[in-house]
Amino acid sequence: MKHIIYDFLIENGFTPQVASYLNMLALLLLLLIIALILDFIFTLIFRRISNVVATRTKTNFDDILIDNKLPTYAAHIVPLLLVYEAVPYIFTDFDYVSNLAEKSIRILGILLSLYIIKSFLLSIRNYLKTIDRYKNKPIYSYIQVFMIVAWLLAIFSIFATITGVSFWKFITGLGAASAIIILVFRDSILGFVASIQVTVNDMVRIGDWITFEKYGADGDVIEITLATVKVQNWDKTITTIPTYALISDSFKNWRGMTASGGRRIKRSVIIKASTIKFLTPIEIQKLKDIQLITDYLEQRDEIINTHNEQNQINKEALINGRNMTNFGVFRKYLQTYIENHSAVHKDMTYMVRQLEQTPHGIPLEIYCFSKDQRWVNYEYIMGDIFDHVLASVKFFDLEVYEYHTTTDQLK
């Protein structure tokens, strides 16, 4: 074919030099047309075969390969090899151009290999996401690590191809530049090490609720990559955290709360110390009308009276002997109220406790767990409990501390 075009041009009066150039351009055009036709044919064949195979297999992995265009990329290999083999024949009289064309095709082959590898790895990631035990694993981090290594090898191969130096000699020559490479890829190396530790120690999974005050993150983890962890905050904003920060800084993972089946309620009201007092028999009798503590008061009152009578305690002064206080009875009332609350988790710790006195009063804390972990429902349950607490204080002749300004005092 080459000689036919060349001879035809010479017979029609072209000089040998011009005939050589025109012959080369004609063959190059013909080769490109044949390569495009073959690329179209092989792409069509690969797609058809892969679609047939995908419909006949039970696994969806081959469907994912098709979605990530792996058959399409693989179809480009045959036309590329054809062009590479034909280049020496087309540029026989142009050694420099032939050498340049061969290097260009090699570089295209390296890049095509990268796309094939990436497509295959992404297919593996998408497939593993369909398996429950791998859904919350940072698989994409490992794919990124592999792709970084692949890109580095590809870049070294391209430089070796351009310079004509052996690949291994080129790699050996980079030993002196290793410090610079480590500096350039510092974050990637740190991220790689961090992602391994995060996975091995099971510190964070996709879907975990984490709180990271340093970065202003408070929400669900939606993505874990080599370099970053993405957290969707409750206000729907996205916070990006460096992966290595998960092992270098302190953060809170709420997974334990989610797995426990309850969500903690830990809040207190401050009772004015001046309103705490011993209860008189009349006041005790009046409090017996409160059903939740009727049995408790009757039993307790009997025990105390028996003790005081046996020890001949002078009860003209309430401070003598054993007594009940309105604050203690109120604590018992709240304890009973929590025990009977339908939304409180009874298999987890629940109590009402008195905390250390403050300049403002005595904190009375309710510590329990709600059965419903959903945020809105949790807030409703906690609000319902403390609505009742605040409303019931006055029945025990107690008062909740409120800060009064100078204006309030003048009124």
UniProtKB/TrEMBL annotation:
InterPro entries: LSM_dom_sf, MscS_beta-dom_sf, MscS_channel_2nd, YbdG. It holds the Pfam family MS_channel_2nd. It comes from the Bacteria. The chain crosses the membrane at residues 20-46, 73-92, 104-127, 139-160, 166-185. One of its GO terms (biological process) is cellular response to osmotic stress. Keywords: Cell inner membrane, Cell membrane, Membrane, Stress response, Transmembrane, Transmembrane helix. Its main location: membrane. One of its GO terms (cellular component) is plasma membrane. Residues 187-255 form the Mechanosensitive ion channel MscS domain. It is a multi-pass membrane protein. It is found in: Cell inner membrane. One of its GO terms (molecular function) is mechanosensitive monoatomic ion channel activity. The keyword Cell division does not apply. This is Mechanosensing system component YbdG. The lineage of its organism: Bacteria, Pseudomonadati, Bacteroidota, Flavobacteriia, Flavobacteriales.
